[in-house]
Write a structure and sequence with these properties.
GO terms for molecular function: kinase activity. The two termini are 13 Å apart. This protein has a 6-stranded parallel β-sheet with strand order 3-2-1-4-5-6, sandwiched between helices. The protein has a 6-stranded mixed β-sheet with strand order 7-8-12-9-10-11, with helices on both faces. It has 16 helices and 12 strands. The chain is α/β, with parallel strands linked by helices. Helix 3 links the parallel strand 1 and strand 2. The longest helix has 18 residues.
Length: 431
């Protein structure tokens, strides 16, 4: 096949959509459900996929004694009849999420051994199900969330802190449900698929401590409200740890993860005549730096046919970070995928035969309205013609502004799933 701009763009969009479909709860959830209990089924959950997961449960168990409540992001709810859906804010929590979390914790209390708590957990659940612990307030948690998001901390580090500020995360939800059986169905959006990190692990033991959370705050010099600093320093009421008897009847099952999406993309790529190379589902680091590294692999393919010859597709997943440093001009509109893509584009320098799409499988790159963006061999040339400085856009974290001006954002709307970022680089043979 001869690759040109039209065919390459269409192929990348098709491949990206293939990865999303591989993680759609509407097609994969039913086969992972547990045996029906003798007692009640209480369905609770949080995340960008929580509502569509609840709808899938209702479809799979049409005659079950179901009730419950899930919380999802604004504009992510789908119709359900027996399980209530509440919408709340992400990535910074709001009062709607706090109220939903309080109700969820109440719903699982007082259940018996014959009852089942079916927990539907997906990416975004940490912010969406925010219930401050101890004497903390929602405003305290909002301040810490904003500071962590701008700090450059990894999702593992951010969620360690969140677990130790919460009355529901870090295994506390499962502990509250004891002695009922707790069965978690999860969609992973985190590198490594650690159950304790997905939505801050409300139904699994927490291997981290208050001391770990304090160390993260210190490492990134995160400014916290005085009440948060005092709460962490007190180290009171530690999260449930492995071996806690209250979690003895808690089970966890992953129904979708980044690797699954990547493997589906690889299969589709082969059907297109592209040899796929999966670089890993857990790539982390500063977004622009990761983009530069991916560009280095791409240049090696073009120049030497290593680590594989063109035509090929480089596929990677994971979650990069964007650090907003003091003195950075305000007003930039970014997103970790578009920033990674801009770093990649600058490093490849407009070389021929290289196209790339980088996007978040939930359809939202950061806080913007796009999933990500596409870069083409002439992206930099078109940017210059439009009066745009790509280097300045990168340094001011305005990658969205650049790709939007060029008409190269990828807009899917909410996909109702979330297996983290999917980065695709299509490399055609040299002319």
């Amino acid at each position: 096949m001869t690759w040109d701009d039209t065919s390459a763009r269409a192929a990348l969009r098709r491949l990206f959509e293939t990865g999303i479909r591989a993680a759609d709860p509407r097609t994969i959830l039913a086969r992972h459900l547990p045996e029906r209990p003798r007692g009640r089924v209480m369905v609770v959950g949080a995340g960008k996929s929580a509502s569509v997961m609840a709808a899938a449960v209702e479809a799979a168990w049409p005659d079950a004694d179901l009730s419950g409540l899930v919380v999802t992001r604004y504009d992510h709810a789908v119709p359900t009849s027996r399980i209530e859906t509440v919408e709340a804010s992400h990535p910074v929590p709001d009062a709607a999420g706090e109220a939903a979390a309080r109700r969820i914790l109440s719903l699982v209390q007082g259940l018996g051994e014959d009852d089942l708590v079916l927990a539907l957990i997906s990416g975004g659940g940490s912010a969406l199900m925010a219930l401050p612990d101890g004497g903390l307030t929602l405003e305290d948690k909002q301040a810490v969330n904003r500071a962590l998001l701008a700090s450059g901390a990894s999702i593992q580090e951010m969620n360690c802190v969140r677990r130790h500020l919460s009355a529901i995360k870090g295994g506390r939800l499962a502990a509250a449900a004891h002695p009922a059986r707790v069965f978690t169905l999860a969609i992973s959006d985190v590198p490594g698929d650690d159950p304790a990190v997905i939505a801050s692990g409300p139904t699994v033991p927490d291997p981290t401590s208050f001391a770990d959370a304090q160390a993260i705050i210190a490492r990134y010099e995160v400014e916290t409200p005085a009440a948060v600093a005092a709460h962490l320093a007190a180290m009171a009421d530690e999260t449930p740890k492995p071996g806690d008897p209250r979690l003895a009847r808690a089970e966890f099952r992953m129904i979708a993860a980044p690797q699954m999406a990547m493997e589906a993309v690889a299969e589709e790529a082969r059907a297109m005549g592209l040899q796929p190379l999966l670089l890993g589902d857990s790539l982390e680091g500063e977004a622009a730096v990761v983009g530069t590294v991916l560009a280095g692999i791409t240049r090696s393919v073009r120049a030497h046919g290593h680590p594989l010859p063109a035509p090929c597709l480089l596929v990677s997943g994971g979650e990069t970070t964007v650090t907003i440093r003091p003195g950075t001009p305000k007003g930039g509109r970014g997103g970790r995928n578009s920033e990674c893509l801009l770093g990649f584009t600058l490093a490849t320098g407009g070389a021929a035969g290289i196209w790339a799409l980088m996007g978040d499988t939930d359809g939202i790159d950061g806080s913007e309205d796009n999933a990500g963006a596409i870069a083409t061999p002439d992206t930099l040339a078109r940017a210059r013609a439009a009066g745009l400085d790509a280097h300045a856009a990168l340094s001011s974290h305005d990658s969205y502004g650049l790709f939007a001006t060029l008409g190269d954002t990828v807009n899917t709307g909410p996909t109702l799933t979330n297996v983290n970022d999917l980065r695709l680089v299509l490399i055609a043979p040299s002319a």
